């Protein structure tokens, strides 16, 4: 069955980058996948500056819709240009939503696909969290201005958790195409079962992959930084990690590694909740 990748594209209040579009196209090409982009057309933007004149509100709303439409047209054209050059199948579906419903709509749309592809930034964080925690599907995040090549080496932020097991299931496609896997454990962050890690390494070796085990210490800093440093030193093309969210009532109080990856991402990462 051919993989189906999903690319949510935002047009308001800022637009998704062209580099995200190119990365998504390249990721689909390297993994022989089809790509569907969901492009937002803003329906009713929030008017952040109150005005006693309804005409001013209507003018701001009209300008926001035009801004969203123009960005959508540019992203649509860019996607088709990149897809035509790489000869992948790319489909665009527009969706209309009020600003406050964009996050939920993207999460709902993402449930139909094998994974979604987004770009990490502080402004995108609410949308990223919604897709990550409410779609039930893997999410690949790219840092800004990152270039996606073939994924040959996969790094795994190993902690032995059930959440990581789900992430590894979501990453199966990339593991099948990879030639090497690096299992990374941070030894001073939480207890690590070396036996479980070594057992998983043996399973991957039996499947035909070259596997290395790497350990590091965070020394009181964020574990995500140490993990990414080790992954980069081993020339990993993709990091796989479980994603933790504990309390919706407190607006996704995230696990430390997840929170750090969303804020300070240095390499492409596949996350699954």
Most strands sheet: 10 strands, mixed
Got a strand count? 10
- Spatially, the strands of the biggest sheet line up as 3-2-1-4-5-10-9-6-7-8
Number of helices: 9
Descriptive labels:
10 strands; 273 residues; alpha/beta; ten-stranded mixed sheet; globular; single chain
Topology:
Layout: E1 4-9, H1 18-30, E2 34-42, H2 54-86, E3 90-97, H3 102-110, E4 115-119, H4 125-134, E5 139-142, E6 153-157, H5 162-170, H6 172-177, E7 180-186, H7 194-206, E8 210-216, H8 223-233, E9 238-242, H9 256-263, E10 269-272
Parallel strand pairs: 1-2, 1-4, 2-3, 4-5, 6-7, 6-9, 7-8, 9-10
Antiparallel strand pairs: 5-10
Can you give a write-up of this model?
The chain is globular, with a radius of gyration of 20 Å. It has nine helices and ten strands. The protein starts with a strand and ends with a strand. α1 runs parallel beside α2 (54-86). Helix content is 41%, strand content 22%. The protein has a ten-stranded mixed beta sheet, sandwiched between helices. With 273 residues, the protein is an alpha/beta fold.
Provide a brief overview of the structure.
This protein is an alpha/beta fold. It is built from nine helices and ten strands. α1 packs parallel to α2 and α3 (102-110) packs parallel to α4 (125-134).
